[in-house]
Amino acid sequence: HLGVRAVNVHWIVVLALAALFSLFLLGMSASSLQLVFLNSTTIENLSRKTKVWQLAIHMPNPPQGPTPPPFRTITYGQPLPGAPDAQDPASTGQPSEPRTFAILHSKPGENPWDLGYYRNFKSVMGDHWYDWFLPIKPSPCAEHDRLDSEFETGPVVERMKREAGIIAPSQGELEEKPRNRRRRRRRRSTRARSGDPESGVDEVSEVNAKRHHRRHRRRSESGRNGAQG
Question: What span, in angstroms and rounded, lies between the C-alpha atoms of 33 and 195?
Fold first, then answer.
C-alpha cells in the first residue's frame, strides 16, 4: 500500500548460502595451491619448518678405503648365510650385485622434493596448459617411472650428494669459492678506505700492532745507546 516492495526471503537464503560456500571454496583452493607450489602433502605441511628427512641415497662408487665415511651406509644384495651364491647365475637365474646406500639427513625445513614453484605446479597439474583446465590425464608425479625415487628430487638432494662426495661438484661451484673470496677482500679494502669502524677492525688492529712494535724497537735502541755512552 505504501509502495514498499516486500523482501523475498528465498533470495536472502540463497545469497547467504552462496557466500558461505564461496568462502569455503576460496579457502580450500588457496590451501590446495599452497601445497601444490610447495610440493607437499597436508600431513607434511604440519611440520614443514622443522621436518628433517632421512634419505637412503645410492652410491655408485662406495668408499673402499680403511677410513669409514662420515655418514652411515647400508648395503643390499649380499647373500645370506646358508643361501645359494648370489653371484652364481645357475642358482638365482641372474647375478645380484650389492648396492650401497648412504644414509643422509636434510636440514630442518628442507623439502627434498621441492623442484621450484613452476615445476611443482607442472608435476601436479600437467606439463601443458590445456591439462590444467582439462584434468583428464594423470598427474606426472603419479607415474613413478624413476629408478632412484618414486618422485623427482630437487636441488636439496643434489646438494646433499655433493656434500657427501657421491657426485662431484660442478665447475661453476668450484669457481664460485675463489670469486667469493675476492669479493670479500674487495669489500674489506673498500670499507677500510671509507673509514667504516665496524668493517675495518682487522686493519686497525694490525696498524696498532705495527705502531707498538716500532715504539718498542725505538725504546730498546735508545736504551742500548745510553748504556754505550
Answer: 50
- Rounded to whole angstroms, the Cα distance separating 223 from 190 reads 41
- The answer to whether 104 touches 69, Cβ cutoff 8 Å, is no
Kind plus residue range of the DSSP H or E element containing 100: strand 99-105
Q: Model pTM?
A: 0.59
What is the spatial distance between Cα 10 and Cα 7, in angstroms, rounded to a whole number? 9
Q: In this structure, which amino acid lies at residue 198?
A: E
Residue 49 CA neighbour count, 13 Å, CB half: 0
- State which residues of the chain have pLDDT below 50: 1, 80, 83, 86-87, 89-90, 93, 198-204
End-to-end CA, the chain: 130
Burial class (CB in 10 A: 0-12, 13-18, 19+), 120: buried
